[in-house]
Write a structure and sequence with these properties.
Number of helices: 15
Strand content: 15-25%
Distance between the termini: 37 Å
CATH class of the largest domain: Alpha Beta
Shape: globular
CATH superfamily of the largest domain: FAD/NAD(P)-binding domain
Largest sheet: 7 strands, mixed
Radius of gyration: 22 Å
Number of domains: 2
Helix content: 25-40%
Length: 486
């Protein structure tokens, strides 16, 4: 891999054809997975439909897009722990990256590798970049509206780590725009059953295959539901932290389930700290101040009003610099100054940020705002390839839940939405083309052990935090030991 990285750094273009061939090879390999035929015997206590072709867990862009790309003849159950749109995808502000043209391939590739500290999987990076235009066109066809220039052309912005303007956006609520439009399209499907406030407590195994999940709907007992394939698109683990931009109910359940069942994780300690969230003394989810604000000219200042860092460096660098400046100044935050951005641009491009700051008593058109780093995104997760294939047959992982190596050690700004869409589409393709014989499982499960939901969830949190600590005690002591909900 080191030789591949060195070669790529010298001449990305020379590697492009090789990577394209490896993408095709990987997908073909996934389509030829040998799956052992299984038989099914029902259980007492199962009150909902007891078999689906696919169960998709999570309703962010990865879960929704995977669902939309599954064949219409498949019976699909789409479940979420909370309301459908209470997902981190919905909160994404900045935008979604796309390849501008053929000349942009090398700069985009290199930007992604630099942000990821050259630990990225080259095949995954290539596949994400080359599929980006097709993904964007598909989003537009599904009703997604991106901001445009006065001549009708798409408007691009820039964020930290990017060498040019290649990020499409819908004001400062891009995630909301994409997620809500995808959800609208999912609701039109007759083959999909949607269940909200439905907690996935475990998977059901039969040998080395996942054959279903244990679900608990609100005010009901846990039940076993069987299927041919399970897709985990459950997001990250921000709910384990006191300071996070994530919804509090996103607590890394899928990682605890993976640990319990021997499903391989990878780099679970690769957790991104976003440099700028609005500082608050109150508890709850932190409001993210998009990186695109700094891309448009906002400056970070210390307590004396002095600039102390290049705001367009990768997120981990900026977050570390802010923490160091807070230590030097003996303060609980630094300041973010919007004065280099015109009032018209603020109101047009960042209306959500403007209004939220006003609610907190700050007018960004007149004064700087207090900001602090907070947990934001997980690059690690369940080990998967570019098709979502995990170490357990019939269990797939996509989006923030998966680690396919595309982000390396640190994610490049606005690559998350694109990554989720690209590889969830790949995942659906693999499931669609899997023509191997399949019969339902004989596996039975003792539902009584899931009776104490709170105890189960507490143990899940301990399992995940301990896994992070085992992988990286330095990171754990710096961020988790202080910020995690233990």
């Amino acid at each position: 891999m080191r030789k591949s990285i060195k070669a790529t750094r010298k001449n990305v273009g020379a590697c492009k054809i090789i990577l394209a061939k490896k993408v095709v090879k990987t997908i073909k390999k996934c389509l030829k997975i040998d799956i052992k035929p299984q038989k099914y015997v029902g259980q007492e206590g199962i009150y909902m439909d007891n078999f689906y072709d696919v169960i998709v867990v999570g309703t962010g862009v990865a879960g929704l897009y995977a669902t939309l790309n599954l064949n219409r003849d498949k019976k699909v159950l789409l479940v979420t722990k909370d309301e459908v749109l209470n997902c981190d995808s919905y909160l994404a502000q900045g935008g979604i990256c796309t390849l501008l043209d053929e000349k942009d391939y090398k700069p985009y590739f290199e930007d992604t590798l630099k942000a990821g500290r050259f630990e990225n999987d080259l095949i995954a990076v290539h596949d994400m970049i080359v599929q980006s235009k097709e993904i964007i066109n598909d989003l537009i066809s599904k009703g997604v509206n991106f901001d445009k220039n006065t001549d009708g052309s798409l408007n691009y912005t820039r964020e930290g780590g990017h060498s040019t303007f290649r990020i499409l956006h819908h004001k400062d609520v891009t995630g909301k725009e994409i997620t809500s439009k995808l959800y609208d399209r999912v609701k039109e499907l007759d083959n999909v059953t949607i269940k909200e406030f439905c907690l996935v407590m475990d998977i059901i195994k039969d040998g080395n295959s996942c054959v279903g999940v244990v679900l608990k709907e609100k005010n009901n007992l846990p039940v076993a539901v069987y299927c041919r394939d399970v897709i985990f698109a459950t997001g990250g683990l921000g709910g384990l932290f006191v300071n996070s931009t994530n919804f509090s109910h996103i607590t890394g359940d899928s990682f605890a389930i993976a640990i319990r069942n021997g499903v391989e994780l990878k780099n679970i300690n690769y957790i991104q700290i976003h440099p700028t969230v609005l500082y608050s003394k109150s508890k709850g989810r932190r409001f993210l101040i998009s990186e695109s604000v700094r891309g448009e000219g906002a400056k970070l200042l210390n307590k004396n009003g002095e600039r102390f860092i290049n705001e367009l460096l990768p997120r981990d660098v900026v977050a570390g610099a802010i923490m160091e400046q807070m230590r030097k100044d003996n303060t609980k935050h630094v300041w973010l100054d919007f004065s280099d951005i015109s009032n018209a641009e603020i109101l047009h491009h960042f209306p959500n940020i403007y209004n939220k700051c006003l609610e907190e008593g700050y007018d960004v058109t007149k004064e700087p705002i207090p900001v602090v780093p907070a947990q934001h995104y997980l690059m690690g997760g369940i080990r998967a390839d570019i098709c979502g294939v995990t170490s357990l047959k019939h269990l797939y992982a996509v989006g923030e839940t998966a680690n396919n190596g595309v982000h390396g050690a640190n994610r490049l700004a606005s690559n998350s939405l694109l990554e989720s869409l690209t590889f969830s589409k790949n995942c659906a393709r693999v499931i669609n083309y899997d023509k191997s014989e399949f019969k339902n499982s004989t596996a039975k499960i003792d539902l009584k052990k899931y009776s104490d939901i709170q105890q189960w969830q507490n143990e899940n949190k301990k399992l995940v935090l301990e896994e992070i600590r085992k992988n990286d005690e330095v990171f754990y002591d710096k961020w988790c030991n202080i910020q995690s909900k233990r």
